Amino acid sequence: MENFVVTALLAAIAGLAGLVIGRFWDSRSESARWRRDLRVRSYEDVAKEFYHHRALIQGCSALPVDSSEKEKAVRVLSEHHAVWNQQLTALWIHGSESAATTAYSLDHEMSALRRTAIREQIPFSSWHLRREPVQQAFDDYLDAVRADLSLPALQVLRSNSPDRIS
After folding, report:
1. In terms of C-beta density within 10 A (0-12 exposed, 13-18 middle, 19 or more buried), how is residue 5 classed?
2. Are 110 and 102 a contacting pair, CB within 8 Å?
C-alpha cells in the first residue's frame, strides 16, 4: 500500500511539473509568434503604403507647377506623408536590421521623388523612368523582408526591371 501511495504521489508531481513546464513553453512560443506577427504586419503595411504613397506622388507630379490643383495635391501628399512615416516607424520598431536599413533607403528615394514631384511637372511618358530608383529601392526592401522571413528571393523582381523602363 505504501508503494502505491509513493507511486501515485510521484505521478501527481510529474503531472504538475509537466503542466507547469508546458504552460511556460506555450507562453514563450506564443510570445515569439506574437512578435513575428507584428514584424510581418509591419512589413506588409510598409509595402501597401508604398503603392498608395507613390500613387499620390505620381498624381502630384502630373499637375502643372503653380496651379491650384498642384497646391491641393501637395497638401494631400503632405498630410499623407504622416501615414507613410507611421508605417516606417512600426517597421523600425518591429523589423529586422536589414529590413529597417532598406526601408530607410526606400524612404530616402521616396522623399527625393516627392520633392521632384512638387517642384516639377513630370509627363506621364517619363514617369516610369523617374520612379525607377524608388522601384529599385522597393525591390531591395522586398528582398530584405523575404530574407528575414526565410523565404527565397523573387527573381521576377530583378528580371522584370528592364521591362519597367523600356
Report:
1. exposed
2. no
148 CB-near residues (< 8 Å, 6+ apart)? 39, 43, 95, 96, 98, 99
| Rounded CA separation 77/52 (Å) | 10
Residue with cell 528571393: 153
CA 120, CA 63: separation in Å to the nearest integer? Answer: 8
CA distances from 113 to 3, 28, 58, 75, 151 (A): 81, 43, 9, 16, 30
* Cell of residue 28, nine digits: 514563450
Nearest to 45 by CA among 110, 103, 97: 103
* Residues 111-160: tens digit of each pLDDT: 999 999 999 999 999 999 999 999 999 999 999 999 999 999 888 777 66
The 8-class DSSP code of residue 121 comes to P
- Dihedral (Cα; 139, 144, 147, 153), 10-degree rounding: 10
H-helix or E-strand spanning residue 24:
helix 2-61
